[in-house]
Amino acid sequence: MRKTKNIGKILVIGIPIILFLSGMGGVSACYIDTELIAGQDTEVGSVRIQRMSNSIVRFTYYVTEDEWVLEETHLAVAESFDAIPQNKKGSPKIGRFPYNDDHDSCTWYNNHVVRYIIDLSSDFPDLYNPDTGRYEGTLYIAAHAVVINPAGDDETAWADTYGQFFPGDTSGALWLTFILT
Question: Which percentage of the chain shows pLDDT scores above 70?
Answer without folding.
Answer: 79
